[in-house]
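Listing S7. Sequence submitted for prediction.
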Amino acid sequence: MLVTMAHLAVKAAAAALIGAGAAAAVWSLPRAAVDAKPTASAVRVAAPGGSTAATAEPVAAPAENWKLVWQEEFNGHTLDPKWWNIEKTTPTNPGMGDNDYTPEHVSVGDGMLTIKATKKEDGRYLTGLVETRYKGFWKYGRFEARMKVPPGPGTNSSFWMMPNVKHFEKWPKSGEIDIAEQLGREPTMSHGTIHYPGELLHRDHGVYNKDETLTEKLSDGFHVYAVEWRNGSFEWFIDGKSFHKTAQPDMAKFPFNRPFFMILCLGVGGKWEGYPTAETPMPIVMQVDWVRVYQMDPKASKSATTDETKAG
């Protein structure tokens, strides 16, 4: 297993920061996992089933000169271990907040990744988290996923990124890119955030449909959640509509000057999310149709040098 639950403590700190006050966490990796990490090549385009053959279905590129450098269509029967890691809670790898993690709540079928959550007898929630650490990681690009989030209060459907390094600095120094955090208690909204050392609560934060002029519940269908990360700027989109942008010189410096990897997870309960109610169907289900990565300069899509991976 390549990720530790301290990884999830970083996410807990981010959520607590938005909802209440600052928190801190360190994310480390077991020695054996470090030694066993593969060499990733982010310029490969993963076809259905995780192979690197050309996809049979044409893919429409977003605006500008973005070039598709990686994709996952979830057309197989399992997650490809060449690209994905699945979190598991154990006695030595405890859960985060009210959540425990199991591969049994992560499945692939009918062209979808499904992450579900159920309530345990002890009142905690069993759910899933998958990520591409050491397997798919990029510096700059457009990162997008087509997802269907669950309805009802108490959930946080998350698509986010962390730096691809062995050891993380104390949060928020490592940096964090939240492409989408969709709270079930805010059915028409989604949050896009970067966390980094600095002012303004160590974050730059935007909310899709903050003024609530749109009435469609995001859980009613699939939507494409995306961020465009350039040297010195970030811009967030839902279904191609920009809803927040930040452009600052500091965004070109540490921690956003190194490759990041992607994470998909379903959180339930907690101070920020709140707790499920009778409106929240059980089991709770989050679906992902596909994940894609685009870059302006294909040469920049090489995952990371050995020195970059060892940084931090």
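Caption to Listing S7: primary sequence and predicted structure tokens for the chain studied. The helical segments are 5-19, 31-35, 306-310. Confidence is low (pLDDT under 50) at residues 1-59, 300-312.
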